[in-house]
Specification:
0% helix, mainly beta, 383 residues, four-stranded antiparallel β-sheet
Length: 383
Amino acid sequence: MVWFCYPKPFVRDSIMFGSRNFLFAKSAAGPAGNKLFMWGFNGYGQLGTGNTTAYSSPVQVGALTDWGTLASNGHTLCTKSNGQLWSWGRGANGGLGLGNTTYYSSPKQIGALTNWNTPATGDRLSLCVKTDGTLWSWGFNNNGQLGQGNTLSYSSPKQIGSSINWSKVVATYRFVLATDTTGKLFAWGLNTSGQLGLGDTTNRSSPVQIGALTNWSKPAVSPDHSLCVKTDGTLWSWGANASGQLGLNSTTAHSSPVQIGALTDWATPAAGTNFSVCAKTNGTIFSWGNNGNGALGLNNATSYSSPKQIGALTNWLTPASSFSSTNCVKTDGTLWAWGRGSYGTLGDGTTTNRSSPVQVGALTTWVNAARSYAFSAGCTQTP
């Protein structure tokens, strides 16, 4: 999971390269530093608070205001505004990129380079695109998810191939999707449910292009299904579908991309376990799939196999989903959450499940949220 962070004021944009490609907050000054807050489960130290205490409300990571791009999944990566990359949390299999397998509950810098740009995290798995367009990976690699052409784990960053035109990367559990600056979409890693979109269920240990099209834009992944918005605003899905999470009005699995409906106004996708969420260009937001723990935010317990609008508001911006939970920043800078509340993962000060969106605090300075499959979450905030 990857989230690119810009300061307010919020405006809608569709810039494609060099960040996670979705409608994001932007200012004329470009990227800048932010405060970093995290909450939820903290058994691995992934909240970066110097302990392993769970928090049900956002807690600031240190006092610095130079944080940039956040990704978390049992361990956490975050860039800084000067291009440094920092990690903390679960160090198993070298997932922190620090040359060891030690767990850290406070941020540690990965090397000394200052050209890191867009990180992604999976199960003990880390990747990051640099500002020079190269793509690097490290950590757990039993299914080839590091893209190195083997199944060896690495505890320090290792470049994937020699390409210098990678744009963005998203990861979950043990597989990866990535786009390049030409709009091609690539996949590798675990493929037992067809989640790589390559027309089969064979694992891959190196990047393989999905089809031949060059208009892929905004990918999102869950442990067993994938979503992607194209530059034309269409939305596509593939992988497991037992709960209707592909949004195709069926429960049939697909190992190749299939378009969801015919609309061309999709903007920002997010994929959770057995469910999906996507905001549109008009600020509305939709969900579908399994509705356990209120994951769909529809104020009921009914599951749906096609998109259903959450409420009637038109100011939703950037959703982030995992397991049965979602956080979403609105265009007014407020932060909202719904779904499973275990360990305080919604950030609303409770461990209660919510079947409708509830506001996280009262601040209006939130930028973009990230969610972890280890029941933790984070969000940056303008200083």
